[in-house]
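User: Fold this; tokens only.

Assistant: Input:
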Amino acid sequence: MTAPGRRSSTFTRLLRHGFTDASAAERLLDSAELMPVRNDPVLLEALGGTADPDQALLGLVRLLEAQPDPTARRELLDTLIAAKPLRDRLLGVLGASVALADHLARHPRDWHALVTYEPRDLHPGVEEFERGLAEAGDPVSLRVAYRRCLLAIAARDVCGTTHVAETAAELADLATATLRAALALARAAAPEDAALCRLAVIAMGKCGGHELNYVSDVDVIFVGEAAEGADEGKALRAATKLASHMMRVCSETTVEGSIWPVDANLRPEGRNGPLVRTLSSHLAYYQRWAKTWEFQALLKARPVAGDIELGEEYVAALEPLVWQAAERENFVTDVQKMRRRVVENIPAAEVDRELKLGPGGLRDVEFAVQLLQLVHGRADASLRSGTTLDALQALAAGGYVGRQDAVQLDEAYRFLRSMEHRIQLYRLRRTHLVPEDDADLRRIGRSLGLRADPVAELTREWRRHTAVVRRLHEKLFYRPLLDAVAQLAPGEARLSPEAARERLVALGYADPAAALRHLEALASGVTRKAAIQRTLLPVLLGWFADSADPDAGLLNFRKVSDALGKTPWYLRLLRDEGAAAENLARVLSAGRLAPDLLMRAPEAVALLGDGDGGGLEPRGRDHLEQEILAAVGRADGAVQAVTAARGVRRRELFRTAAADIVGSYGTETHPAEADPGALVDRVGAAVSDLTAATIAGTLRAVVRDGWGEELPTRFAVIGMGRFGGHELGYGSDADVIFVHEPREGVEEREASEAANKVVSEMRRLLQIPSADPPLLIDADLRPEGKSGPLVRTLNSYEAYYRRWSLGWESQALLRAEPVAGDEDLGRRFVELIDPLRYPARGLGDEAVREIRRLKARMEAERMPRGADPKLHTKLGPGGLSDVEWTVQLLQLRHGHAEPGLRTTRTRAALAAARAAELISAEDAEILDEAWVLATRVRNAVMLVRGRAGDTFPSDGRELAAVGRYLGFGDGMVGDMLDAYRRTARRARSVVDDLFYGG
């Protein structure tokens, strides 16, 4: 007896052998069933070698209890102790799978299936499994026989007798035998139907690829033909009955559970299509209607049951179509869209634990391999394998994948599949989620041979292999392209020039010959620059291919590298700072504006880094003005000063555009900005602040050059329109009006001449042709428009507004805000105009009618000829003009009474109107959404085309690039246009109520 307070030696031994609940294990070892072998060291050693010793011991006791009599119990114990193969197999299964332990408890004689240890038993095929299922005469006995065969597969798996690919092949062979047995049961139940038709069962997916999981849907397609002399219609109905019965035999739940679902949804037209078709019907569908993914699925098609000859005819007829799929117009778009859709459909809470579908998961390997097969399998029949690892090996042998990459990918795929097998084996449930519980992770880790710290080791290995897959997923496509042009790896099989061009076309490059020239220029040679670029290019090329214009991205990268390649910090930035390379790839392939800004001063690429010296956060007005004024102060003359100011503006425009692109596209580490309004506000504020700082610097330069430190008149620049509203876009002019006030002792004529000269010189200097984009100053919103004087005194403005002001001018003044010059003068100008834009009595009916007439005339006269009004972001229904005029009418009517409406910003005024209950929350949201979307479209057009526009581009690539910026994936241009029309239509309905009807 053990002394009180001391642990027994058995307890200590149990802990040493991996038991987690040694007390419970002691009680089980003391049970009557195990008493004869309780102290046998062989048993304890074997239990300690399992994935879960506690579970294995409990399963063994349950199996012994289930034996029909003492003799059977003794036979099991004697064999267990004497025969190591049985001991390892039985205890290994019991420690890895509670589901198979349950099966053994229900069918206690099935342990005999693990005793045989002949060579033919080590790697059984379809024939052996068919013999194992032969005595099953109904669905229930078929399930029992299936589990018995599965028991043997699992035993070989957990003991390491078979590796993961062999296990997957055995599971597929067992599925084949099971489908044949199920079809035999269906035929036996309806011999008349069987006599009328020929029915072939085609395995698809993992079963077709000979790489099935423990628990998985078995994907199939059915092909039927009439038996000789039978009517085709009756034969197809008979074949459909047989197919449906076969599926039920496998799928339905009985007292012994189910086997697995048989899924026929990969058939033509999916669930909406007939379950069984003739061969000619299949062929007609694939020739006319099939989508790219359907040909991708056919890579794994394999006849497995029924009329094998008919099945082989089906495969032979469709195979040529499979290898033509890569020539389809939207091949790359379709494949990428399908992969993206799979990832997007993963619940956010599960994406990090998703072993199959998540980033770096099994599907990434399978997608990459299948895409390369479809691209290169047309000309190389050695690649036409339905099995992922066999296809990967063939791709490496043919030079389509680098050998080292293939080895790493093979290793990662085997590890991830092994994890998947162990997760599913535990309860025989279909799941691809890595469990969160430490006990589950411990069991999985131990089953994979990780014994020192199973949970930590498993997590580390899983993350390592996932990272390898994510990295190689891009590299897989592009590394062989670099090897083909750089020719630096002796002994490696290489892509031929034709194969390289095929791959580039398949990945979305429109001019593969030019792309190969760029790659050769970037990657050839033995310099440090070439070596680093060979490391970077595989990933960069993947990011370029993810854009609407991969060719432009690669060309622009070559230009930047040619300009900066000898600069030490440039390549170091891309190599060492995680965000810089991806940010650069996104910016270079998103359109013309940002690359054009960058090419004029390539050193601005440093802004794309994530270190202290870079960053894409926009700089505030004060910081910008301080930098520009300092540059102006150092300059020699106004021309040099304004050139410096424009240089700062160009750099900051690039910073703003780059941040906008990265925020809109998202990166691997930072998802796209979820709030489009935040992106619009950020761009509007950044460009407006930058424009104000540039004008302030230009004003300082002109004054200093012509008059020294002080102008004879106080001078202020008032921002109007989008400028005053902090809503400038990349292509916006700066709408302003100018006000001055003569200093004491200065005649008004002298002051006016000085003010006009300042304005003229500012406009000239800001538009001088140079490497920097011009800043156009538009003063047409001044009193009397183009007919009025360019500059007025404050008193002149006061007199004009008192006597002559028109309704539209009061409306225009709603956006007026001082942006540069004399602050006191600017403040007094605002005090002057406030009563005009926020009238104490609001607007009279006649004034409202005049504003409505003016808007209607503007829409009719200014809409460009031939433009689609429904897609015109400024003047079209539900566009910017609609929303802004509606908000401004509310400001004119209620601004005096509601302080929140006294703002130059559209969105802020709309929010204030909502808070004051002048507009419903729903209507405010509709108008805000439409305004934000229209503004983003205009920004996108400027980013993509490099010139401003108020409607969507007509060029297909440019339109796709606008779509990507707005968050619409490849092939979703139609969805984007529909979304815009829908949003604008809803906004116009609100405008009709509030502006025209209110």
